[in-house]
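@channel sequence for tomorrow's demo:
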Amino acid sequence: MSVADLRQLARQIGPNHDLAAALWDTDRYEARLLATFIDEPARVSATQMDRWCKDFDSWALCDTACFALFDRTAHAWSKVAPWAARQPEFEKRAGFALLWALAVHDKACADGPFLQGLQLIEASAEDERNFVRKAVNMALRAIGKRNPALHAAATEVAHRLAASQDRTARWVGKDALRELTSARVTERVATPRRRPRAAPAP
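structure tokens (generated this afternoon):
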């Protein structure tokens, strides 16, 4: 089944934590994707997140879980650093995919956790494994697009990585700089976003 079909099926089913758990335990790819779409963030425990993380065997399953479910749980930030320190490729990717997802979706978060995330990025930028380095790169780019202060901090990290003696770190830095220094991103970051107007009183 395509992801679009799975999302449509998830809308028909609605939130269902118990069914999500049963689907995950089938060990089937499509069933596990569907589980991430229907699980209830408020009922997801830290233990469940760790267990599912250990089951990740593809970038698609890892990223879908992080973007569709994990980043909306109460435990999201507490998992970023521990997962980023793991050794298995997709478990380590999960730490940076989750950081990336939070950079996109956690609009209310202060800059502090993202500045700490930049330290994790710089520490792992030499990991040459394809699915790790790409997630490190995407997290760096996402953080740098949040606001002017984080843009400046992420750009500084990217410049340091681009000047590294390590080939993988150089790729991460140079690739991130192409987006972070583009006119589209610099203009977007410099322009404050307007808050939506409140609906008029009846």
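heads up for whoever presents: The chain is about 70% helix and 0% strand.
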